[in-house]
C-alpha cells in the first residue's frame, strides 16, 4: 500500500504563515530516499530533533511554549504558576512519606522553558524550607537549545544541574526522590502500525518519484518487533480488529523501564494528555494553539510540533513490571487520575480562593477547567527493597547495621492504595504498640483536619507488641475512594466521640495532618 501524503517542495499552505527551511527539507528527503524508506517514528524524530543534531522543531530555536497567542502551545506550567506551586505540595507530601530524607532528588525530564522547575523551587524556598534545603533538582533535557533557555530562567538557583540526554536512556541510578515530567512522552516519536491478521504491519515513510513523502505498510522494523512481546502483555494485539491503526509509543515503554531501574525509592509523577485507549489515536501536529492533521507534519517537517496522545494504562502496566506500583484507589485502579482531580487533591482550589489578583486566579482556575479535561496524572511508587532481617542474618543487607526506625508518635493516615507500603512498615514492626488502626470514611480526598471532623469509623484493628498491625479476623471492607486507614492512639469510641462532639484529632496532643500519598507525619 503506497499513499502520497505530502508535497514538500513548495510552501503548500501559504495562509498558515509557516516558513519551511529548504535546506532541512532537502536533507530529510535525501535521508529518507537513501534508506529506501524509514519507519514513521524515525521521520517524526528527524522532524522534531533534526539530522545529526541540526535543524528539527525542538532544535531550531523557533519552538515557542507559552501563554501568548503566537506561541505554538501552552503547557500547564506556562498557563499558571499555580501548577508548579501545587506540585510543590505533592513533592512535600512524597518527601514526608519517605521519612524526610536529608537529600531528596527531583529529576524533571523534558523541562521546556524551565518554568515548572522555577515555580517548584521558588515555592519550596518560601513555604517549605526543609525540603528546599534537601532538594537536588536535575533536568534531563534532549534539546540543547532549550537547555540554554532553562539555564537563563534558573540562573542563580543552587543545586540545579542539567543532563543533556534522552529520558529513555538515563545515565542515573539509585535515585531517591521523584521523577517528574509534564508533557514529555507525548513528544516521543511514535511507531505507527496496522493490525493485519492478528499481527502488526508498520507504517513507513518513503519518497515518491515527485519528491512527495508517502506512507507504505511493511513488516515491523527491528525496533517495533523488539517490543511486541512486551506490548502484547499489556495490550493483546490478536484481540484487536483487522485494519485497526495503532500508535505505539515504544520510547515510552523503554522510558518506563528505565525509570524503574533508575529509581531506588520514591515516586514517578507523569502529567500528559491522552487517556485509556489513546494507542488507537493517530499522531497529529500542533501550532498556534491549534491541532492539525498529521499531513501538515509531512508538509512542514522541522517547523511544526508533532505529537500523540499518551496511553497511561499502558505506561502503568509496563511500570508495574519494573517495580513501579501504581498508587491506586477504587476510582483510579491503575494510578491514573484526571489531572484536575490531582491538582484539587493538593489544594489548588483552596490556594486560588486566597489569590487576590483576578487574572492570576482565572489562569489558575483554567487548570481545573475543560482545557485540561483530557489530561491525566499517573502516580507510581517504588518502595525500597529491604532485606528481611530474620532471613539475612548471615548477609550484609541494604540496611544491615541500622537500627529499625520507629515511627514518631502521632496520627498516621494512609490511603487504601497505600496498603502495600503499610504492610511493609507493619512487617518491619515500626508502628507504636497499642495504637488503633481504623478504616475510616473521610469525605475529602484531600485529607485535612476538617475532613476528620466529618469522618466515620468503619472498623478497627490494633498494633501489637511487636509493632505489627493486627487486622481483625475476616476483615472485609467495602472500599470507596474516600476510605482511609488511620493509625491513632484513640480507640474507635474515643474517635467517634471526638468527631461527634466537634473536637478534632489534632487538638488532642498527637496530631493529624492529611496527605494524599503515604503517611502523614509532622
Ligand atoms: C511539550 S514540551 C513540554 C515542556 C515542559 N515540560 C512544559 O510543561 O512546559 C516537551 C519537552 O520535552 C523535551 N523532550 C522531548 N523528548 C525528550 C527526550 N527523549 N528526553 C528528554 N527530553 C525530551 C523537549 O525538548 C521539551 O523540553
TrEMBL record:
Domain of life of the source: Bacteria
InterPro entries: NDUFAF7 (IPR003788), NDUFAF7_sf (IPR038375), SAM-dependent_MTases_sf (IPR029063)
Keywords: Methyltransferase, Transferase
Pfam families in the cross-refs: Methyltransf_28
PANTHER family xrefs: PROTEIN ARGININE METHYLTRANSFERASE NDUFAF7, MITOCHONDRIAL
Protein name, UniProt field: Protein arginine methyltransferase NDUFAF7
Organism of derivation: Billgrantia sulfidoxydans
Amino acid at each position: 500500500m503506497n499513499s502520497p501524503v505530502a508535497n514538500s517542495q513548495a510552501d503548500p499552505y501559504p495562509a498558515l504563515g509557516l516558513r519551511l527551511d529548504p535546506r532541512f527539507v532537502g536533507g530529510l528527503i535525501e535521508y529518507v530516499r537513501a534508506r529506501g524508506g524509514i519507519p514513521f517514528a524515525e521521520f517524526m524524530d528527524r522532524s522534531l530533533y533534526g539530522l545529526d543534531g541540526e535543524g528539527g522543531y525542538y532544535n531550531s530555536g523557533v519552538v515557542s511554549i507559552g501563554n501568548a497567542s503566537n506561541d505554538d502551545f501552552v503547557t500547564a506550567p506556562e498557563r499558571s504558576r499555580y501548577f508548579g506551586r501545587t506540585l510543590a505540595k505533592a513533592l512535600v507530601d512524597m518527601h514526608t512519606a519517605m521519612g524526610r530524607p536529608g537529600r531528596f532528588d527531583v529529576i524533571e525530564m523534558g523541562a521546556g522553558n524551565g518554568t515548572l522547575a522555577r515555580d517548584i523551587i521558588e515555592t519550596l524556598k518560601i513555604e517549605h524550607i526543609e525540603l528546599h534545603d534537601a532538594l537536588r533538582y536535575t533536568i534531563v533535557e534532549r534539546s540543547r537549545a532549550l537547555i540554554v533557555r532553562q539555564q537563563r530562567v534558573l540562573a542563580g538557583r543552587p543545586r540545579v544541574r542539567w543532563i543533556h540526554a534522552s529520558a529513555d536512556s538515563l545515565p542515573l541510578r539509585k535515585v531517591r526522590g521523584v521523577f517528574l515530567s509534564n508533557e514529555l512522552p507525548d513528544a516521543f516519536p511514535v511507531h505507527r502500525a496496522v493490525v493485519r491478521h492478528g499481527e502488526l504491519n508498520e507504517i513507513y515513510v518513503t519518497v515518491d518519484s515527485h519528491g512527495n513523502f508517502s506512507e507504505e505498510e511493511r513488516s515491523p522494523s527491528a525496533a517495533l518487533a523488539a517490543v511486541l512481546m512486551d506490548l502484547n502483555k499489556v495490550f493483546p494485539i490478536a484481540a484487536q480488529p483487522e485494519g485497526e491503526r495503532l500508535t505505539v509509543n515504544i520510547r515510552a515503554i523503554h522510558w518506563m523501564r528505565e525509570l524503574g531501574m533508575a529509581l531506588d525509592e520514591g515516586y514517578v509523577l507523569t502529567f500528559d494528555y491522552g487517556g485509556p485507549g489513546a494507542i488507537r489515536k493517530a499522531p497529529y501536529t500542533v501550532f498556534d494553539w491549534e491541532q492539525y492533521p498529521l499531513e501538515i507534519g509531512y508538509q512542514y517537517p522541522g517547523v511544526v510540533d508533532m505529537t500523540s496522545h499518551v496511553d497511561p494504562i499502558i505506561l502503568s502496566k509496563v511500570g508495574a513490571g519494573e517495580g513501579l506500583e501504581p498508587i491506586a484507589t477504587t476510582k483510579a485502579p491503575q494510578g491514573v487520575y484526571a489531572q484536575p482531580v490531582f491538582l484539587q487533591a493538593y489544594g489548588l482550589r483552596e490556594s486560588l480562593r486566597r489569590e487576590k489578583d483576578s487574572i492570576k486566579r482565572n489562569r489558575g482556575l483554567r487548570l481545573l477547567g475543560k482545557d485540561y479535561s483530557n489530561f491525566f496524572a499517573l502516580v507510581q511508587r517504588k518502595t525500597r527493597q529491604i532485606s528481611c532481617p530474620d532471613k539475612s542474618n548471615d548477609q550484609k543487607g541494604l540496611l544491615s547495621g541500622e537500627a529499625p526506625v520507629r515511627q514518631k508518635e502521632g496520627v498516621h493516615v494512609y490511603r487504601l492504595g497505600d496498603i502495600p507500603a503499610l504492610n511493609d512498615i507493619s512487617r518491619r514492626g515500626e508502628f507504636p504498640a497499642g495504637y488503633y488502626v481504623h478504616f475510616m470514611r473521610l469525605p475529602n480526598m484531600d485529607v485535612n483536619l476538617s475532613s476528620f471532623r466529618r469522618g466515620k469509623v468503619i472498623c478497627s484493628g490494633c498494633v501489637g507488641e511487636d509493632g505489627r498491625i493486627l487486622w481483625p479476623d475476616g476483615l472485609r471492607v467495602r472500599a470507596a475512594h474516600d476510605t482511609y486507614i488511620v493509625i491513632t492512639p484513640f480507640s474507635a469510641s474515643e474517635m467517634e466521640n471526638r468527631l461527634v462532639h466537634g473536637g478534632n484529632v489534632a487538638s488532642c496532643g498527637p496530631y493529624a495532618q492529611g496527605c494524599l500519598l503515604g503517611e502523614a507525619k509532622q
